[in-house]
Amino acid sequence: xxxxxxxxxxxxxxxxxxxxxxxxxxxxxxxxxxxxxxxxxxxxxxxxxxxxxxxxxxxxxxxxxxxxxxxxxxxxxxxxxxxxxxxxxxxxxxxxxxxxxxxxxxxxxx
Length: 110
Prior knowledge:
Layout: H1 2-104
């Protein structure tokens, strides 16, 4: 009799808690599905980040190449400018020499 009474109480308690456990189990299933979606989204974001980083690397390489070209052209321009200045000094010195020579010879027309 005591065992029967205890079994009845256990059955009643199971009956009372069964809907709660079913509800908890369904919520756990939803949480697991949400976790899977989050993991998928995280993997997608990682892939997008990897692609973005690769794009940036390629852009960086292109910019470095472009910058090297500009620096090379600037160096050539600078060398040309130095050569022009040297030629200008040479011409100036020659003209000045001719002027001095003309003054010595008495020709001041220059």
